[in-house]
Amino acid sequence: MPDAPDRIEAPGAPVCAPGSAMPGTVIPTTVDQFLNWFREGSIWYLLFATACCGIELMQAGGPRTDMDRFGAVFRTSPRQSDLLIVAGTITYKMADRVRLIYAQMAEPRYVIAMGSCASCGGLFQRGYSVVPGVDSIVPVDLYLPGCPPRPEALNDAILKLQQLIRKEPWLRQVRGKA
Amino acid sequence: MTGADLAARITAAIPDAVVAVEESPTDPVVQVRPEVLHAVAAFARQDLGMETLRLITAIDRPPETIDVVWHCLSMPQHRTLTLKTRLPRENPVVATVSDLWDAANWFEREQFDLVGVHFVGHPNLKRLLMPEDWVGHPLRKDYQRPEEYHGIPTARDRVVPVREVAPPMHGPKAAEQDGWMLLNMGPHHPATHGVLNFLLQTDGEIVRKATPDVGYLHRGIEKIAEMNTYAGTMPYTDRVDYLGGMATNQAWAMACERLLGVEVPRRGEFLRVIAVELNRIASHLIGTGSLAMDLGAFTPFVHWLREREYINDLMERICGARLTYTYMRIGGVARDIDRETLDRTLQWLDHFEPMLGEFDRLIGSNEIFVNRLANIAVMPAEAAMSFSLVGPNLRGSGVRWDLRRDEPYSVYPELEFDVPVGRGFRGTVGDAYDRFMVRMLEMQESARILRQAIARIPDGEFRAKVPRVLKPPAREAYGRVEAPRGEAGFYVVSNGTERPERVRIRTGCFTAMPAIESLSPGLMVADIIALIGSLDVIAPEVDR
After folding, report:
1. DSSP of A98-137, one letter per residue?
2. How crowded is residue B176: how many other Cβ atoms within 10 Å of its Cβ?
3. CB spacing of A128 vs B223 below 8 angstroms
4. Residue A123 is nearest to which of B216, B236, B242, comparing CB atoms?
């Protein structure tokens, strides 16, 4: 991925051009950065809880961790979601459904493999029925270790994903390819 | 009644049926000839009053035999009977008992799927947990894991992360059939509590039949436990029931302690009770809260999530983990609970008990909520026992059966608590509202138990001295406890080595799923949500 132009010091918070005649009204930026600013602030994730991690995913949406603060709210339909948080073990019987759910999501779409099971099969690697990592089925952007990860860790993953989105040359490359 | 008495009664009715008798203080075993198994089971059901079938287990014992074990229970008489039979390994065939007990239907399908025992006369002997095109029976000792399944490698070191997603293997399942609309609900559905799948046959809004399809979270814990040591299986028991990990921990610890003959110190037992009861409240918070959320009330759920965070903090102080505790050890618990944690627990109880009343005002007495649940999906007591429902689902039908009281273990006999049962609080006994209300009342009782246990906790050791390498003699034990979702049990067969021969997990949700199928005809689609929510089924308990 090529480096994004680094004009904005604190991305996501557009600053006023120095010495501007109309302070607070002009924002020097690029279209990519401007669009990404919106995209990173409204990551809607799919409520896709398969196992134990799903409970921590629920708690992460709850009052203490409150992922709403970062614009991340849960949706129940893949068609409205930008982010698939695979929270829990995926079995061979489930694998096909994960593909189907991913295929139903509109681009741009991102995947977080939450917890050891989704990342690599975890504790259940030796089991005969468990997919050893969801990255063998769908492309994964972020791996989040833990069994299960704490809600704070999930929050951090969302922030990391925001950094990822911030650097995407969305208008020039990603969208053109899609 | 001892095993010899039971064997004598069976012999009187069916001559030459009994092969051997094994005495045991909890579960006397009667071994019978396979040809007369159905007759003996029918006798046990009708004349010995065994109206509940707890578990069916098949044990692969190469090179010659497969053992099949039926655990039967009579709740009114407080009596158990364990039937065992020995089948040839090349051709394991035995008669079905699904005509006697409703619960046997799924138990037999599961054992057919995993061990490959054929139950003759079963109405629908198909794979239950594994995909239909799976080859082999995984719990056979000589089972070899395939290299890949539909292009997905089975070992992590052969995984190449994909960049593009492959097209789905199978098309959607739903199709029209006999003119009725078929509707797939799940395995990804916000109201099914994890990866449960129901195939609904609908006539407009009315459901003609809901057929559960499970196995989407079958992780093969029973097989992994056979590869592990006794102590090494403890972390897996958390994940059998992630909302009630303490109870499944305790069930596993109890089964191993019975195998080894270990006594738990009194302080250890009190610490276990405190941990389990806190966990029970945490689990019922999710159970009742998510029921409200499924019915469209989001606020109560968020309130309960807040309360649950307090319990998670306490759990972190107790064992260091928020969800997957692994707190119990064989012979006691992992570490002591300090005085400050106990004080904080009492403080939290002072805050929490009034919250129960507030929750009742917020949602329990809410007219819409009551109308969504009252008189919906009524489960009569007889049927509940035949389906082997356990825990709050059984007590919701008015059956006063709680292992803490009826098969006393740990220090529960010293503590004072009630066993709330469904009384038709807003409608009929055994309806969805009763099951909800039983959970609410149980949280109150758990708070009572917690206060007593904290007040009376003795000083002393919290863990017995247990050797580092555990090699129990070849025998079997069944440890069962009252978990938040009913009976959590581990039936463990040892063979004298460090690793168990067979581990069988009994959970409450596995028997609740087929009950949904029988309760569903005639309900509205929206009532199916209320039914699933009121039974509090979660996927890992069903699939394990």
Report:
1. HHHHHHHSPSS-EEEEEHHHHHH-GGGTTSSSB-S-GGGT
2. 8
3. yes
4. B236
As a residue count, chain B comes to 544
- Token look-up 């070899």 returns B144
Amino acid at B284: H
Q: B21: helix, coil or strand?
A: strand
**Residue B180 pLDDT:** 78
Q: By percentage, how much of chain B surpasses pLDDT 70?
A: 98
CATH class, B221-543 region: mainly alpha
Residue A143 pLDDT grade (very low, low, confident, very high; cuts 50, 70, 90): very high
Mean per-residue pLDDT of chain A: 81
Please tell me whether residue A85 adopts helix, strand or coil conformation.
strand
Say yes or no for a CB contact (<8 Å) between B167 and A132.
no
Phi and psi dihedrals of A10, rounded to 5? -105, 95
Q: Which residues on A lie below 8 Å from B143 (Cβ)?
A: 128
Among candidate residues B370, B372, B392, B394, the one with its CA nearest the CA of residue B383:
B394
Q: Which CA distances in Å does B296 have to B368, B370, B441, B533?
A: 10, 13, 23, 12
pLDDT tens for residues B188-228?
877 777 788 888 888 888 888 888 888 888 988 999 999 98
Summarize the confidence of residues B128-142 as an average pLDDT.
Answer: 88
Q: How far is CA A143 from CA A134, A154, B359, in A?
A: 10, 10, 38
pLDDT at A11: 47
Cβ of A132 and B305 within 8 Å?
A: no
Q: What pLDDT does residue A6 have?
A: 44
Residue B453 and residue B415 in contact, taking contact as beta carbons nearer than 8 Å = yes
Quick one: average pLDDT of B434-438?
A: 91
Count of alpha carbons within 13 angstroms of residue B273, beta-carbon side = 32
DSSP annotation of B384: H
Choose the closest CB to B323 out of A52, A100, A126.
A52
Closest residue by Cα to residue A4 from A139, A175, A173:
A173
B138, B152, B243 ranked by CB distance to A128: nearest: B138
CA–CA gap between residue B108 and residue B221 (Å, rounded): 18
What value does the mean pLDDT take over residues B458-473? 87
CATH of domain B3-165: 3.30.460.80
Give me the pLDDT at residue A2, please.
47
Q: In angstroms, rounded to a whole number, what is the distance separating the alpha carbons of residues B539 and B544? A: 8
C-beta atoms of B324 and A148 within 8 A: yes
Residue bearing tokens 């293997």: B169
Split at pLDDT 50, 70, 90, the class of B158 is confident
CA distance, residue B153 to nearest chain A CA (Å): 8
For residue A75, pLDDT beyond 90: no
**Run of H or E including B392:** helix B392-396
Whether the per-residue pLDDT at B58 is higher than 80: the answer is yes
B194: left (phi over 0), alpha (psi -120 to 50) or beta: left
pLDDT at A7 over 80: no
Q: Where are the domains of chain B?
A: 3-165, 221-543
pLDDT of residue B152: 84
Residue-by-residue DSSP string for B273-329: HHHHHHHHHHHHHHHHHHHHHHTT-HHHHHHHHHHHHHHHHHHHHHHS-SS----EE
d(CA B8, CA A88): 51
Residue contact B164–A56, C-beta within 8 A? no
Which chain A residue's Cα is nearest to B224? A127
Q: How far is B336 from chain A (nearest CA, A)?
A: 23
